[in-house]
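Re: the 180-residue chain
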Amino acid sequence: MSAAERRAIAKGGLSQFRIRRGRVEQRIVERELHPSNATMSAYIPMDTRTPQQRRRIMQAVKSRDTKPEMIVRRCLHAMGYRYRLHRKDLPGRPDIVFGSRRKAIFVHGCFWHRHDCAKGRLPKSRLNYWKPKLDENAIRDKTRLEELDELGWQTLVIWQCELDDMEALAARLQDFVGER
């Protein structure tokens, strides 16, 4: 233990970050209640990525033309449907809009919109940041769907995890959109 750590422990504890084998870890050193006890040191994994890697990943997240959205659009186009994208005059800017049919499709990422599946789980770190943010997204989604319903629009939400089965996706889209 370094002299700096001993001084910090004497002041009541120390929390410091370090990168070890490509993982960011937080080292917590606490002073025991009884002075005769030795100090306790533990490493708690914070993230599997370095801050620079995490920053690059988060900057690459897009709000339109996402991979799940492109899969749905290609499927609809192959089925012969034509549509409009991201109409700004509708609440929530649906990803795919069939104006003459008054139908809108939202393609949601499971993580960002809090789907109840494995991909929709909350992260293990920084819950005080992520939980309110993702809860607000889910509340906003529900509100936008209700607003579209009040305007007489039918809506369909397709989740990222549902894109694995293309036959089921095509059948679901066909049922929702109807005849060409």
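The chain has two domains: 3-57, 62-177.
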